[in-house]
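Dear colleague,

Thank you for sharing your sequence with our group. We've completed the structure prediction you requested, and as agreed, I am returning the results in plain text so they can be pasted directly into your records. Please verify that the sequence below matches your submission; if there's any discrepancy, let me know and we will rerun it promptly.
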Amino acid sequence: MDLRLNQRVELKKQHPCGGKVWTVLRVGMDIKLRCERCGHELMLPRSKAEKAIKKILDEEGSK
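Please find the predicted structure tokens below.
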């Protein structure tokens, strides 16, 4: 999966705050995401992040 900085992604499971849309903040062996609803940040190993992502919402990082 080709993830880039500042892309918005939708995860399969909902965050406890109710948000499903996250922004990609860091890409590498780990992926850092920020919830757009509450601002919570988390880091996941790339393999877990790729499984959790349902779809990429926009291509902001490819500009």
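Summary note from our side: The first strand starts at residue 8 and ends at 11.

Kind regards,
the structure core
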